[in-house]
Specification:
Elements: H1 11-24, H2 28-41, H3 46-58, H4 62-75, H5 80-92, H6 96-112, H7 116-132, H8 136-149, H9 154-166, H10 170-183, H11 188-200, H12 204-217, H13 222-234, H14 238-249, H15 257-269, H16 273-286, H17 291-303, H18 307-315
Length: about 325
C-alpha cells in the first residue's frame, strides 16, 4: 500500500483530488496529467480511471476516453461510473440499445453501493434511451423511481414529460412542464418541450410563444430553431420562419436536410423562389430518396416554367418502394 502524506492522502489520492479540481476549472490537459500521475502511482486506482475519461473528452479525444472507460469496466465492473459513462457515450452516438443496457448496469451498481446521485443520473439516461426505443412501460417505471428519489426535480419532471409526450398524453406532459416553469420561468429546455407539446396538440400560436422564448434563452439550440420555424409556417408567417432558421442557413456548414426543407417552404411563400430551389436541389442531391424534397423541387421547377427540368426530375424518380 502507498504511504499516506502529511494530509493523510496517498500520492494517487492526492493526484486524483487535484485532477478533479482542475477538471472542474476547465483545465482538462492539466487534469489529464494529474489523473495519469495517480495511475502511475497506483495503476488500479478506480477514482483516477473514473476522472480520466472526462479530461480526455473535454479535449475532443473520444476514442481514448472510450478505451479508458472499457478498461474501467473490465477492472472494476462493480463501479457504476464506468457503465454510466459508456451509456452516455452510446446515447450520444445514437446506439440506444447499448445505452439502455449500460445504464441498467449503472443503476444496478449504484443501488448496490448505494450511490443515490449516480443512480439518479443513470435512471435518467435509462429512461431517455427507453423513450427512444419506444419501451414506454420501462421508461414509466424508471420515471417512478426518479420520483421516489427527487419528486420535484426539474430533471424528474422533464423526463416524465418526455414519457407522456411519447405516449401522446399531451395534457400530462404539459402539466409536468408547467410545474418546472412555475419554479423557473427561464428553463429553456422546458420551454422547448412545452412548445413541442403545443405543436403536437395543433396550437402553433402557443408553440411559437414558448419556442421563441426557448431560442432567445438558448440561441444555439438548433432543434428549437427548427421547431420554431415549423410553428411559424403553421401560423402562416413564413418570414418569421426564415428568421428562425437564418443562423443555420448563414453557417459555413451546409444546412441539414430538415433545415433546408423547412427553409425552402418558407422561402417559396415569401417569393424567394430561386433560393428555395437552390436549397431543394442541394437536399435532393444529398438524399434522392426523400419524396417531400423531390415533389417540392418539381413543383418549384413548374412554378418557374422550367418544364424540362421538372419532367427530367419526375422521370428520374425510382420505384415508390425506394422512397420514404
Amino acid at each position: 500500500a502507498q504511504e499516506g502524506g502529511a494530509d493523510g492522502l496517498t500520492a494517487a489520492e492526492a493526484a486524483t483530488f487535484r485532477g478533479n479540481a482542475e477538471l472542474g476549472l476547465g483545465r482538462s490537459a492539466e487534469a489529464e496529467a494529474s489523473f495519469r500521475a495517480a495511475l502511475a502511482e497506483d495503476p488500479g486506482y478506480a477514482d483516477a480511471k473514473i476522472g480520466l475519461p472526462g479530461a480526455l473528452q473535454a479535449q475532443g479525444r473520444s476514442e481514448e476516453a472510450e478505451a479508458v472507460v472499457a478498461d474501467l469496466i473490465e477492472s472494476h465492473p462493480e463501479q457504476p461510473a464506468g457503465w454510466l459513462m459508456r451509456g452516455q457515450m452510446a446515447i450520444r452516438d445514437g446506439r440506444l440499445e447499448a445505452a439502455r443496457d449500460d445504464f441498467q448496469q449503472a443503476v444496478d451498481g449504484a443501488r448496490a453501493m448505494p450511490d443515490r446521485t449516480r443512480e439518479f443520473i443513470a435512471l435518467t439516461g435509462l429512461a431517455e434511451s427507453q423513450i427512444g426505443l419506444s419501451e414506454l412501460d420501462g421508461a414509466e417505471q424508471n420515471v417512478a423511481a426518479l420520483t421516489r428519489i427527487a419528486p420535484g426535480s426539474p430533471i424528474t419532471l422533464k423526463t416524465s414529460a418526455k414519457v407522456h409526450f411519447a405516449s401522446q398524453d399531451y395534457p400530462a406532459a404539459r402539466a409536468d412542464l408547467q410545474k418546472v416553469l412555475a419554479a423557473n420561468n427561464d428553463d429553456a429546455s422546458a420551454l422547448f418541450l412545452l412548445g413541442a407539446v403545443y405543436l403536437a396538440e395543433g396550437d402553433p400560436d402557443q408553440a411559437g410563444l414558448n419556442l421563441s422564448r426557448a431560442v432567445n434563452l438558448a440561441p444555439g439550440n438548433l432543434a428549437a430553431r427548427k421547431l420554431l420555424a415549423d410553428a411559424q409556417l403553421r401560423r402562416a408567417d413564413p418570414a418569421a420562419a426564415v428568421e428562425a432558421l437564418s443562423p443555420l442557413l448563414e453557417s459555413e456548414a451546409a444546412p441539414d436536410l430538415q433545415t433546408s426543407y423547412l427553409a425552402s417552404q418558407a422561402l417559396f411563400r415569401t417569393g424567394e423562389t430561386d433560393q428555395a430551389i437552390e436549397l431543394l436541389e442541394q437536399s435532393h442531391a444529398s438524399d434522392p430518396t426523400n419524396m417531400d424534397v423531390a415533389m417540392s423541387l418539381g413543383a418549384g421547377y413548374l412554378a418557374q416554367q422550367r418544364i424540362d427540368d421538372a419532367v427530367a426530375l419526375f422521370e428520374s424518380i425510382p420505384p415508390s418502394e425506394d422512397y420514404r
